[in-house]
Request: fold
Amino acid sequence: MTRTLVSWVGHADLRALAAQLPTRERNALSEIVGAVPTDPDGPIKSLVRAERFDSIHLLSNYDSRWNKRFAAWIGRNCEVHRVSLRNPTDYAAIYESASNSLASLTTGGVNQDDELCIHLSPGTPAMTAIWVLLGKTQYPATFYQTHKGKSWVTEIPFDITLDLVPKLLRQPDAHFQHLAAKGPEEVEGFGSIVGNSKAIRLAVGRAQRAAIRSVPVLLLGESGTGKEMFARAIHAASSRRHGPFIAINCAAVPRELLEAELFGYAKGAFTGAVKSKPGAFEQADGGTLFLDEIGECDGAMQAKLLRVLQPTPESGPCDRVFRPVGATADKAADVRLISATNRDLANEVLENRFREDLFYRVAVITVSLPALRDRRSDVPLLAEHLMATINQQAMSDEPGYKDKCLSDSAKAFVKQHDWPGNVRQLYNALLQAAVMSETERIDRADLAAAVTDLPQQNRRDILELPLGGTFSLEKHLEFVHKHYLRRAMSEAGGKKTQAASLLGMKNYQTLDAQLKRLGVE
Reply:
């Protein structure tokens, strides 16, 4: 096993170095970091004296001249990497520098069987906090501290992914309550999002916060929940709103053509390439690229996307370098990436169908979009909005067309139905009902006829799933159980006594126990 030490270089380290330098250099360095060392060796030298490390990688915001002298002073395979920080307490810049350094070390030879060691003492408190965050999540590490020549291993008594994240996931509303303060119509750029439920407010609030950052966003949700609409809203609410918005559906483009679609191609790259053509990354320069159904990309394309999204030293979060098909030189573009999928990418990573490193690149911020069954109070309003759109389209296509509207029974139907296909299915049902209805009023029967086959098809799907492989009876029974618990709570307006009655339970305590056991909010 090899041991690699990673640390920031702090003032205390350079003070210790200054004490060893000739007078002229000592005075020059002391003007930067102070004159009197509190520790003759400094934190890093003290640790290196006490512990064995096969390689030492240090991050430094100081001049290269002092970095070279410090590396020579430490010795023992020490390498100092200069990073540029305008402010040593800037969490975002510190995180990016530290994460990039650990990522390069990981790909450069620090294997899972090797030990990564992080020194927490040098640098600012912000630097220490970022080390703890990274060393307890993506890059498991042994933490060291030093003080006045003594060193020791520091145990961090919690696991972020096992102890803290599950608590956040179990109570997301409590942590993001402030994000639901405004409805979509009150948030700049999100006026096209229809609804006022708590679920859609939370999604809009989180998306709005994501919009102001130039980092990749991953939109999660079932098919038909409006992921592209959210992507366009994030673009419209960002500083890139005046730049282009380019959308590519990765599932709709043949695999052998997707690379050329994304990166472009040079003249003569393949048969039929009579002239060069820019790809989506080049077209989106200065704006946003939306990759829908990114989970459908095969392994080869995932590797190519990872290369484009891999940050380089001193590059911005949206700087992309790529090479068109058949070209001999790279191109660069300034592109903010938004991705979307209806797959469970975390599970895809576990099943080795989606690269873990790519997942962390595209999912810097995630926004989960609620299904219609989880925001039933929005469905009548959404249906009215969609009907207005259908009427407007019909009037331009059919002279003499008269607007159609939903009856009270039709509104009740759209609110009660689960709409497994979400907004897309609702729109199609309304369009079919508008076309087939002979009157200006669309009734419950018109809508029921438009969705008659869907419940039976869904029932066949869940009762005729293929056995073997990844099939789990317990998993599917739990899915059905959770579905009816959520539906009952929704239809009962959150009243457990009424929900228990709808489910045929004798008392609400039984329902409450099942809600807690299955983690249903």
About this structure: Residues 216 and 337 are 5 Å apart (CA to CA).
